[in-house]
Known about the structure:
Blueprint: H1 2-14, H2 23-50, H3 53-71, H4 74-83, H5 91-106, H6 123-136, H7 149-161, H8 166-206
Helix pairs in contact: 4-5, 5-6, 5-8, 6-8
Amino acid sequence: MSLSLALSGITLAATPTVQKPHGLFGALATAAQWFIGLFNEGGTVFVGLLTGIIPTLVVLLTFVNALIRLIGPERIEHLGEVAARPGLVYYPIRYLVLPVLSVFFLTNPMAYTMGRFLPEKYKPAFYDSAVSFVHAITGLFPHANAGELFVYLGIAAGITTLGGQIGDLAIRYLLVGMVVILIRGILTEFITVRMMARRTANEEAAA
């Protein structure tokens, strides 16, 4: 028994002990451990997305692309010609319906080409509406702006962690975006018309 205890004492004594670094090296070691842990946590979130929302998004993208093929973008082009007409009644068509459908069917950045059907004074306002909507549509229809999908997925992951619903977030994001693009379109058109009139007046005065 005493021989076993003696051997155990020799083994324990021979086992090397590593002390944690202190000072500058300790701070560097802690920072490195935190840095690697950050990427490990990101990998965990990514795996959660792969087994959760991403398969749903792939199926949704397939369905939406098939729907676009069936409807055809030529019908959206006809709507652009209607939206170019003057009058207050065409404001919602020009800065709400047309941007929404353009972004949905043509996606970012092809949606902006629909401005070619509009007079020059309407083009900046249409672009303002369309470029603002490419973010709000991502929650429900990620095909429209796939380049920023993972930005939305990061936000959605945080909402899910807090116990919220992704569908509720997507609907609210979309509805708020539709209100915002209508307001931005009307205000930008007003500013554009004023600036174009001022430039014309200055050119006439200079002549």
